[in-house]
Each structure stands twice: as structure tokens, then as C-alpha cells.
Amino acid sequence: MSSKDTLHENVQKEISELTASISEVVAGFRKLQRPLIESHDKVPQATSQLDKITEQTEAVTAQMLDMVEKLTQREDEVLSGLETIREKIKAGETDSIDSLIETLVAKTGDNINEGYQIMEALQFQDITAQQMDHAASLLEDVEVKLHGIINSMGDSRVQGPMLSTTSKKRAYDPNADMVTKKTDQDAIDSIFANGQK
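RE: above sequence
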């Protein structure tokens, strides 16, 4: 075998090894592409979820403040009405007391109903927690994928455990929404009425 043949074989061997090495690098980059695309999709989704939480908590808070304002105004009217009743009783003018008492009873009933509505509105915390868990889960998935990419590239500068080994399991409804969460008392009453038949 001549030195020319040996050189030719060595070049062929080097080119084969280089081709295999390049194929490995391309395969590695293709592997990394999918987690990057998923991460790229999940970050805006998490941001959108957090924006939704902010909007909905602002809306519920404004609604509760309006209800509290009405409730307080009616309470002032009830107190004023009770004082009027006291004065009328002292003056012996009891003829118009019945209508005033009916008005005060109606205002008190309205206050009780709004108190229940406020309690129901305060349940937004459960929905908010589910929405926050959904956003956190999306961000944790991104972090895990990015850690995987960094580790596969052999970067030893990134320290710390990956979230998959330290994060808690989250149970949530990704579609939890305060806008669509309504309790229709008539619907509930009809369920109980149908159940008793």
C-alpha cells in the first residue's frame, strides 16, 4: 500500500468522523429546538394568565367596594329611620310608623343580600389561587426545559436543583375564571325542588 493510498484512507476516515460529529451536533440542536419552542409558547401564556388574574381581582374588588358603599349608605338610612321611629313614639305619632318599619325591613333585607354577595365575591381567592398555580406551573415547565437545555450543552456555570425535583405538585383548573363563576339561586332552588319530587 502506497503512502498516497494511506493518505487517502486517513482523509476518508477523518471526513467520516467529521460527518458523524456534525450529524450529532445537528441532532443535538434539533433536540434542543423543541423545548425552546415550548418555552417560547409558555412564557406568554403565563404572562396572559397573570394579566387575567390582575384584571379579575381589580373587577371583583371594585364590585365589592360598590356593594360596601351601598350597604353603608343603607345602614345610615336604617339608623336615621330608627331615630325617626323613636321620636314619633315619644311624640305619640304612631300612625305612620308601620310604613317606615316596612321600609327599614326592606333596607335591612337588601343589606343581608349584599352581605352574602360580598361573601361570595370573596371566594375569588380560590379561583385566583388556581390561576396563580397555572401560571406558576407554566413558568416551572419553562425553567425545567431551560435547565435541560443548559445541562445538555454542558454549561457547568448554572448551579442549583431543577424545579422538577423540588417543586410541589399543583392541582388547578387552567380555565378557572371569576367572570363566568356565577351562582344562580333559582337554578340551585330548582335542583333541590326537583330532588324532592
